[in-house]
Design a protein that fits this description.
five-stranded antiparallel β-sheet, about 450 residues, Immunoglobulin-like, 3 domains, alpha+beta, elongated
Length: about 450
Amino acid sequence: MKRSCWLGTFLLLLGLPAYAADPYAETSVATQGEIVVGQQVIVNVDVYVPNFFTSPPQFPLLDIPNAIVTLPDERAQNLVKSLNGEEYSGIRRTYLVIPQIAGTYTLPQANVPLAYAGVPGQSTPASVSLPPVSFTVEGLPQEAENSAFSATDSTLSQTLDGDPANLKVGDTLVRTVTLFATGTRAMMLPELAFDASDGVKLYRQSPALADDVAGPGRETGSQRLERVTYAVDREGTFTLPALAVDWFDTANRQTKRAELKPIVLTVRSKPAAANVIPPDVPVASHETRHPSFRAVLATGLGLLALLLLILLIRRWWPHVRQWVDTRKAARAQSGHTRYRELLAALNAGDREAAYTALDRWTRAMGFQGIADWADTSGDRTLQDALAAFERELFGKPHPATQGSARVLTSAILGWHTRYRQHNRLTANPTPALPPLNP
């Protein structure tokens, strides 16, 4: 009997280190309460190892049907935990899931590779599987079906670079509008609808999208910045319509509106220049009233020059026409033209044409195709938006989602803005050292 007890105790002691020495992972849904379509869901993934990490875990990008999943590039959270008398070190990363339709969502199976100090002085490679975790999403209330997005808070603000009540004909007014929201991502914020009345021309720049930025109250959220320029070409009084965005408040479960009041432009004519000196026009004398030899000679030379110009044009016109046709063809296949075709196809809602236009544009930009462009960008927001769009386009039939094309449009606009800014900085680099003799 004693021999059996000792044997059982020995086997138990042998089993404890093997159990305690295994890395493992935990998953949890941090968002509490009822979840609705378009609401941002926070899913925490914790990875634990005994002792310490010698190589951090490589958290994968997850693909959940009918949802947009992002892994923000924020700093990982370090954890410490005791289990069965063993000290574990942990690292937490947070996934943000935005469901597009109602239903039950489950975190897909995935492996997280890592390395840890399993044996003192050595690095032991390992891999842990993510435990499945699920959450249920309800549809939006009927009164909130027309909401542009869902968030916990949202504000709409603007700045003007001049006084709209004191404009002159030919002046311009730059208007910068910022849509800020918490509890969502910048890719979900809608495009603002700007308009202008007759007599005012509107020029719109590409929007700037940003996540994890400080808001008006120092809270952290996402924003969409739109900048438009109004040019006035005649005097009068003009009204710029109000801007309004309806959104669903997931914290209070009600529809709200962010709004900017109309802007009245008062345009006056430019004052005439004072103290203008009239030109000194000589009076023609009797001798100059009749054509002279010099005048006849000048007329003849002018006609001769005109004849030579006509001959040159007739001789070189085919070459000029060929050059113009070549320039038109090059412009039709340029990245700028392909970019405009892509935005037009996305706005029209033609997904097949939009995907074809996207392939043409990426190749015009010098990439080998859509996949090469997405991989080279290093933009996880862009990659997630493209994956959601391809899933809806090529995947199995399912209920229509709310905005994969709109999300992809926002991601492309954000990438294009950063790409142009990078090219400008590369073309005009800041000198590394100041001049020796300023």
